[in-house]
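Example noted here:
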Amino acid sequence: MTDFKIKKITEADFEKLFVLFKEFADFEERKFSNSLQRMKAEKDFFSGFLAKDAAGNILAYAIFFYSYHTFTGKTLYMDDLFVLEPYRRKGLGRKLLEAVIAEAKKQKCAGVRWQVADWNAPAQKLYAAYGALENPEDRNRDIIF
């Protein structure tokens, strides 16, 4: 088991976190056009949590923002949950998801919403364990409180 702590993202984390953003884009084989400067300029538009080891290395992250949905109301939208490959299946994703769910409840959201790639079976299994419902029409996963 890897020793880690879950912490809220601060601007001091941005440079190291940005490297993981790129790794996530590579993992998903997606085009990446963000920049560190843009991230800093737009810091008020996202929040999140990190899993850090004792040396302060970022092993995983979850990024989210708040949105409003006509059917449910205020919702926390988790844009990414990414764990570096050597640290997968060690509980980091689970702890990050729990932190996101707790934050949504603390902020009195109606639920948490996110998407997961069709090919990412391990992530789908994790989310199902938390009772996430799949909406096949828009590929969203939802946990409604």
